[in-house]
Amino acid sequence: QEHLVESGGGLVQAGGSLRLSCVASGRTFSIHSMAWFRQAPGKEREFVALITWSAGSTYYADSVKGRFTISRDNAKNTVYLQMNSLKPEDTAVYYCAAQKSATTGYDTWGQGTQVTVSS
């Protein structure tokens, strides 16, 4: 079983940057992809970005394309989310998640890290 721990959240002004980290431990060899999701108060959780573990292919939600970059360091079992040009609407709890295969959902989740963007 994998275990995920996020860090790097905080308070930042609009236009600023933050980098989130997610460290995976446990059966990391079984990971197909890792992703970032976010959930704002009163809203449903939404997909932000994903990266495949072996090939490093990336996909982004339209709302963050060109501003956010997902990357990984396989040697450190870590996934990053570099967030630039932050907007108040990016305020949310950000969660890291792991997917075991292309045909399964994201079934391992971190505890979340709060990102707050002030205007």
Give a description of the structure.
- By secondary structure, the protein is mainly beta.
- Helix content is 0%, strand content 54%.
- A hairpin with a 6-residue loop joins strand 9 and strand 10.
How far apart the termini lie comes to 40 Å
Number of helical runs? 0
Strand residues, percent: over 45%
Derived structural class? mainly beta
Helix share bin: under 10%
Instruction: Calculate Rg over CA atoms.
Output: 13 Å
Strand element count: 11
Mean pLDDT: 94
Q: Tell me, what's the shape?
A: globular
Biggest beta sheet attributes: 7 strands, mixed
Q: Which spans of ≥5 residues are poorly predicted at pLDDT below 50?
A: none
How do the SSEs run, as a string of H and E?
EEEEEEEEEEE
Q: How would you summarize this macromolecular structure in one to three sentences?
A:
By secondary structure, the chain is mostly beta strands.
Give a quick set of tags describing it.
119 residues, mainly beta, 4-stranded antiparallel beta sheet, 0% helix
SSE map:
Blueprint: E1 3-7, E2 10-13, E3 18-25, E4 33-39, E5 46-52, E6 58-60, E7 68-73, E8 78-83, E9 92-99, E10 106-109, E11 113-118
Parallel strand pairs: 2-11
Antiparallel strand pairs: 1-3, 3-8, 4-5, 4-9, 5-6, 7-8, 9-10, 9-11
